[in-house]
Predict the 3D structure of the following.
Amino acid sequence: MNGGIRSKGNVWALVPMKRLANAKTRLAPLLAPHERRELMGAMFRDVLATLSRVEALGGILVVTSDDDAAATAAQSGAVVIPDLVENGVNGAVQRGIDWLHANHKAGMMVVPGDVPFITVPEIEAVLRATNTSPVVIVPATRDGGTNILAVAPPVLFPPAYGSMSFARHVAAARAVGVEPAILILEGAGHDIDLAVDLVFDASQNPLSWTRNCIENFSGMCMPVPAGSQKEKFAT
């Protein structure tokens, strides 16, 4: 499965996408299965739209076995390869690493599909940081995870996603003699896993797909600026 290929830079965005039907299970108390699927699809579209505006990226690679996600990615101009084993994020990222190394000898920037707040300037900041360190890590705001992992070349060490992956990725970089650049980025650090994460500042990215999706949910109010009504969504 292939889409268009761009070759403007030495680092590609790598987006691992699980099957949409299996996404966002921690939102089950708030959203029905079809709503969680719609939300994940909307966030994925917003992430791809943002990535497609970053001219310095070498290209966008999506690893998925979800037919709808693959079609969306191909329409955005991404290269799509199947997640053959479907054994989690690490397996999907490793599949992407192998493809990039074999086909382009390019660096990678792993961007999850559930960070719709990410901005073009943030992605550009990560790309600039790869000029000073071959490993750049953006931690998740809340849970000790890794929201962006840029590695050039990507074969320096295997991905270590899962619980407290930020600390494990830092340790993996240091184990191969690299001091990683750590960037704290508001948009990129904010993924959507819990009800409270649905609250966002309306002045941030347009978030057209994500915002429209949330507005369409039955009984769901439009999220308001962070800090004002978070309790409403957390209860």
